[in-house]
């Protein structure tokens, strides 16, 4: 079965964006950017590939899930398919169907949709954000890969917006960078599978 991987940037206090959705305070430091281009090229927007020297993005994903607020910044600058190298699923009850074949607007229950998507053949699925969608899908998440940034912002969009419901993940790997960013890789405990 395909794995659902929540790969996202976060502050030390667990926010993925400011209260208004802005995330420009997450700086892309050269050491982290080089690592992402080499190891996580599929998670970089298609329009950035040429600038970063990525010919063919490689990796474990063939699909990405986004909430409406995560998709909106691309729409605001006229990019209707930010990850054209992946099948993109955008969860929204208000967006019309997308014109691009690689973008599907999903208005149904995210949990049921993801359960069915995981049963289909393919590679792993990247949960890109946002906090509301991640909160709904957290019980389905197999791995958390958090780019922990050295900032405390006090409030914003949480990593997973949901009621109190502790979920344990086991630490698999850590990768610290000179810039202060640490990539933390967690997996759902085996007994939870």
TrEMBL record:
It comes from the Bacteria. Residues 3-182 form the Bacterial bifunctional deaminase-reductase C-terminal domain. Pfam families: RibD_C. This is Dihydrofolate reductase family protein. It comes from Micromonospora peucetia.
């Amino acid at each position: 079965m395909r794995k659902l991987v929540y790969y996202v940037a976060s502050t030390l206090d667990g926010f993925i964006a400011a209260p208004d959705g802005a995330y420009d305070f997450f700086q892309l430091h050269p050491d982290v950017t080089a690592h992402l281009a080499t190891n996580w090229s599929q998670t970089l927007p298609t329009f950035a590939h040429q600038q970063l020297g990525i010919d063919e993005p490689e990796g474990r994903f063939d699909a990405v899930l986004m909430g409406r607020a995560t998709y909106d910044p691309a729409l605001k600058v006229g990019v209707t398919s930010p990850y054209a190298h992946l099948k993109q699923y955008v969860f929204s009850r208000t967006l019309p169907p997308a014109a691009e074949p690689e973008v599907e607007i999903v208005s149904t229950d995210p949990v049921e949709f993801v359960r069915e998507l995981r049963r289909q053949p393919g590679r792993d699925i990247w949960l890109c954000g946002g906090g509301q969608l991640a909160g709904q899908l957290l019980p389905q998440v197999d791995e958390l890969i958090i780019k922990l940034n050295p900032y405390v912002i006090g409030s914003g969009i949480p990593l997973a917006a949901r009621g109190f419901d502790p979920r344990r993940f086991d630490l698999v790997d850590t990768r610290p960078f000179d810039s202060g960013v640490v990539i933390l890789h967690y997996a759902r405990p085996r007994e939870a599978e």
